[in-house]
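Appendix B. Chain record.
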Amino acid sequence: MAAEIVNPETGTGTGVGPDEPFDPAFALHRGGKMAVQSTVPIRDKDDLSLAYTPGVAKVCSAIAEQPDLVNDYTWKSNVVAVVTDGTAVLGLGDIGPEASLPVMEGKAILFKQFGGVDAVPIALATTSTEEIIETVVRLAPSFGGVNLEDISAPRCFEIERRLQEALDIPVFHDDQHGTAVVTLAALRNAARLTGRSLADLRAVISGAGAAGVAIAKFLLEAGLGDVAVADRKGIVSRDRDDLTPVKRELAELTNKAGLSGSLDSALAGADVFIGVSGGTVPEPAVASMAPGAFVFAMANPNPEVHPDIAHKYAAVVATGRSDYPNQINNVLAFPGIFAGALQVRASRITEGMKIAAANALADVVGDALAADYVIPSPFDERVAPAVTAAVAAAARAEGVARR
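Structure tokens predicted for this chain:
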């Protein structure tokens, strides 16, 4: 075992080796960040006989006769499986299921903290599309929803689609749709601040992975004027012969302007830059954007455009970092989206529910709208209730609510 390193002030240590300095991150994570807690007392034999045998048999028999009762008499209707294969974890990449667990635990406690939703981290020892789908389908009776997390593209698209087809509970890949919802909310407010509508804007997205593809499709669904998406080889366009099936579909939906070539050239005259790639955009390319442009450079920890440079040319700047204004943070979306879906026992999460979430999130800003405040803080206590209510109402309006 590694030697314990003790901080003399706190009495805690990292345990990562005798030569390592104290790090509070290790101290916080020791023993994990979550635990299962009973919601009922077990004080005596009467409590035990109700919570377990023989009382529990009555409930089991009732559920066997009326399966829908599982939502009333177990935790199923308020618990989400957070599922990963560890192939696209934060900016760390393919680090495997064990190394992904701290992130999945973190996701689970965010579900609880911000949405009142219980969540269970599930890290799978497989990267096979078929095995992931089969495993989640077999686990589904225990859960009211499935949050797919940190699964690499392009497999993530097929995994989500097929699970949505196979299951009658919400299946949501947060890396795609959570990011898209928060981006749309911020973009709506940036447009309102500058007296424009989404239809007036031409955007360029750096990154054609899970987030980039989802953001492009979602913004177009919401009414964006045009968007071009760039991968490592340049703009995704119909004239390229090296596109995957996902990117071929993207080429058909995007880039009405018919742009080709590099990301830098596409930024000339563009109204919006959205970065979800981790690359770097040179300052001259940012300077070539249209007056009053928006720069959403969301790579962590290093934004594609440093905020100091972006502010020279852009009317609104957003990042994925918590130490700058306008943080595009998925925690603004997924807890409320799932809370709303679970509240009405929705069979799935629709595009309309996601747009309702984005609109509700944007509306939280209200009259306080400013260049450094186009999106609320994750700690704004109005966020989760607003998103939850909007998603629940949209689910009922779209006919996917079951109560």
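Further analysis of this model is presented in Appendix C.
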